[in-house]
Amino acid sequence: VPPQRLQLLLRLLPTRVHQDGKYAYTYLAIATTTRITFALREDQYFFALDDVTVCDTASPSIQLLTNGDFETGSIVPWVYCNPSGSQYSGQVETGLTTMYGYPYVAYSGTDFYLDGAVGAPDYLSQTFSTTIGHTYMREQKEKKGESSERAINIGTPPNTTTAAASTFTKGQARDPVDHLEEYILDYIQYYRQYVRKMSENRIQLAKTQMVEFKALGDFEQIPTPAQ
Q1: Which of 75, 118, 176, 211, by CA, is between 20 and 30 Å from 134?
Q2: Cα 90 to Cα 88: distance, rounded to the nearest angstrom
């Protein structure tokens, strides 16, 4: 999609603040078909998304998105894409879900979208019909954990292509052992550096002592006085 046909509605950079809330934005349609896309990345914790709505301000009671609350138990008809093959990709969760001590739950109903893509974002998008020149209101409710980054784009999909259905891969829930392994590896690396430094110091000390011993050997020994 050409940049001039995209509008960035929201971008939140990594933060250590655990928060949840509701976000609302307006968009002026420039085509008869519009696509909304979520780009989600969570390197340590997870991000929950629920109750995504889009409506024409001229007809606010008409919902243009399908399954914006994920209450069908799947992402259909959302199109999911994970081009980098990121681990812990997005999936629909049901009921209270706890990850690393943080509880995630639907804002309404029982189902919601939970994403924890690591290293690179995965994407969730849906197209809907719009009227050129009309203003559209988009709302979403979200809750996030630590170190999250996400961007929301809305714009006109290319006329020459159509969105293909993507296979949704259910990500694995990350286990705290992942972090424990990182700490152990860091400690091992630190310990190796420490041992190497201590060994170098001991070798240098031994060399110095050897030089001093040889220097003492150059002196003529003085006989012990006779009693």
Answers
A1: 75
A2: 7
